[in-house]
Amino acid sequence: MTDYKFSKQIKRFSVILIIIGAIGIAFGFYSAPSNVEEAKEIVANMSHDDHGGGHSDAGHGDGHSDDGHGASGHEYDHDKHVFHQLHNKPWAAIYVPALFFMMISLGVLAFYAIQRASQAGWSIVLYRLMEGITGYLLPGSIFVIIILAFSALKFNHLFIWMDPEVVAHDEIIRNKVGYLNIPFFFARAIIYITGWVLYRNISRRLSLEQDTNNDISIHKKLFKFSAGFLVFFLVSESMMSWDWIMSIDPHWFSTLFGWYVFAGMFVSGITTLALITIYLKSQNYLSFVNNSHIHDMAKFMFGVSIFWAYLWFSQFMLIWYSNIPEEVTYFITRIEDYNLLFFGMVVLNLIFPLIVLMNSDFKKTNFIVILTGIVIIIGHYLDVYNMIMPSAVGNMWSFGAAEIGGFLFFLGIFIYVVFKEISKAPILAKGDPFIEESKTFQYYNLD
Amino acid sequence: MSAKRLHVMFDDDDILLDAVKEIVKNKMYIHEVYTPFPVHGLDKAMKLKPTNISIATFIYGCIGFTVAVLMMYYIMIVDWPQDIGGKPSFTLIENIPSFVPIIFEMTVFFAAHLMVITFYMRSKLWPFKEAENPDPSTTDDKFLIDMESGSNLSKTKTMLKKMGAISIKEVKEESEK
Fold it and tell me: How is residue B78 annotated by DSSP?
């Protein structure tokens, strides 16, 4: 057993991703219009889009073109609206992956806390990998906060409730000002991030301390901190999803949105953990990880994918059935303007893992876990894309330089930070009282 | 001396498992092992084929799914279309979201019930069936191997005693019928 060394290939690979991503993002910002005239020109050049005659009823538009028009004519308002959407596009394009990778890290942190709180026996050999992935939580949340701060400073128009002019003309948002106001919004964000990072650092420190110290009190402390963190996490994660995702559509609300976002981050976190485990095992670092561990992670991927779909459908069906206008616009936008993405995402996130990972033999086959894992990661990126984009850019969406660049940029940073963090500590949490159970873990049905 | 059928009793599952492995290694035939609770690894030790019940369950689930779709199609679209909550039932695809819970439940219902019924049939269990276990204490705290002794009876008996058998009983083949 050798401890992981931050390899040159990984470093080079992640730096290349960051550079390509940065170029893509820069190009996205460069090609975004800076005034209404330029936006009109871009729309006129879009031959595939019959945007001119139609009226976009994107969620974002509700505050604007319907309630917001005063002395100026509707024509002008519409152009301004399109300008805002195009202006938002590169911002939304980096906000989606920033949020996505931060949530992967957060999902793994929740998974880690569950393992600690339930004193699980099987997963101890993976603790150091989980701790490595949660190392991205602090930088990841800082990226998100920076983008939110740019929104608050009016560099973009992602969160329309941050614009006092919009709020003044919009009664629905005006009634929510007690919760949706900039100081309180950032105060909440800082509380969430402090809580998560605090738990992450405390558990990491205790876990490292355990390597040299056999005192059982460390194990008990970890248990208590984890159980406490899970309570904080459930509340803060739910509120985080309202603040950072749902409030982008300030008229709309869904009461199970927090759960839905949680299921998405949980499954993408576990999938990332499985991918990194298989990668490091192929590099001969994880001799103590056997196919029963892989099998267990694949079971989680399978189960949580179904759980995610259950919540996705519950949210959809209730809103579809009741058909209340302020609720149903959310899905009308997505089904009309994002049809392929909206339903394609369900195929990637439910149908594919359901069919492929149902077989027990497939769950222990590295190749199939990697294949399904990549599909799940792409699917959940599209899920976050579907949460943000329709409200931010309406039907002006595309996968251009900024979207792909943004994804690669944050992927590069994620890989760099995570592998760097894994290399900082021994690869096996050898001081844990259950470590032998984990090393010899054998699912009785596997050979 | 010809082969005899033996009922060998044990009082511990770990000892039983080792004994079963030893018996299989010596190429003696095991008819059945009776245990008060499921012993993990016993099927592997007896070299039993892996069960196919999961494949059967998948097929039952598919049947349930199909039945549910056809059922909802007939009830809600063909036979008696209703306008529920402003959602008139003209086509199946338009109303599929409201049928999904039913389709899901029917899939689970078919898969679960048919799986259990299949399991009972394969295990030859049905109402008023006489118990097959040769000794009632296997329902309490004892483990029993029903096996063929092989050609050398006394050698087998010594071996089993050494493995930790608490009693060995020879049974006549006729009484088994």
Answer: I
